[in-house]
Specification:
Layout (H helix, E strand, L loop, with lengths): L1 E5 L9 H12 L4 E2 L13 H13 L6 E6 L1 H13 L7 E7 L17 H8 L1 E6 L4 E6 L1 H6 L12 E7 L7 H9 L4 E6 L9 H13 L3
Parallel strand pairs: 1-2, 1-3, 3-4, 4-7, 7-8
Antiparallel strand pairs: 5-6
Length: about 220
């Protein structure tokens, strides 16, 4: 089985969660592939580009099942990729782990859009985003907004087995949206945790559930 970790918005393959999963899977002799969605440049990021990067990295691997672990925006991409690859001959996506999944991009909560909002972003063509991995501001083009609106992962109903983890104190992703998405999935198990968006206090619990549900019980 090939395992992918899809990092979140303004994060990187060197994030604490990415390294956590690389270490845990590595102890089982399993590699974790983690595309860098900041490449070639953060300013030109789009969901379509992220999906293309996932496509390319999956296609380069020998035939086998695929498990996708997506965090926040990475979970948005994981849902779309899972829908595409559910019945793929060479690389079927058979398992999903969604961490604080941004199944809807709640634009009204983006502090970076104030005071001009979406229209201000459209007029200027770019906004400043604090990039957590780089610890500095980076520009993001309006194409990100236009492209993302072509995708609706919140309306997907997927056939894959999945485990979903959502923090009750998450201020970036609304717990109610995640609960509604999970309720529509025929093979999903949802864990609501006393944690924030990063789920940093729940990683050991998350690993236990992944291990029990998707690795030991394939």
């Amino acid at each position: 089985m090939h395992t992918f970790y899809l990092h979140g918005f303004a994060s990187s393959p060197q994030s604490s969660k990415a390294l956590f999963f690389a270490e845990r899977f590595g102890a089982l002799g399993m590699a974790v592939h983690s595309p860098d969605f900041n490449q070639p440049d953060f300013s030109t990021l789009t969901v379509t580009r992220m999906l293309r990067q996932v496509d390319d990295e999956i296609a380069a691997l020998p035939p086998d099942e695929v498990m996708l672990i997506g965090s926040s925006l990475g979970a948005f991409v994981a849902v779309e990729a899972a829908a595409k690859y559910a019945n793929a001959a060479r690389h079927p996506v058979t398992r999903l782990v969604l961490l604080a999944p941004a199944v809807e991009l709640e634009w009204e909560s983006w502090s970076e859009l104030q005071p001009g909002g979406i229209e201000g972003w459209r007029r200027t063509g770019e906004i400043d985003i604090f990039h957590y991995a780089l610890q500095e501001n980076r520009r993001l083009k309006f194409a990100f907004y236009e492209d993302a609106n072509h995708y609706q992962p919140s309306s997907r109903v997927l056939s894959q087995r999945m485990v979903i983890f959502q923090g009750l104190q998450d201020h970036s992703v609304s717990p109610a949206l995640v609960q509604r998405f999970a309720a529509a999935q025929p093979h999903a198990t949802l864990y609501m945790l006393e944690d924030g968006h990063q789920l940093k206090n729940s990683l050991d619990f998350i690993w236990q559930r992944i291990s029990q549900s998707l690795i030991r019980n394939p």
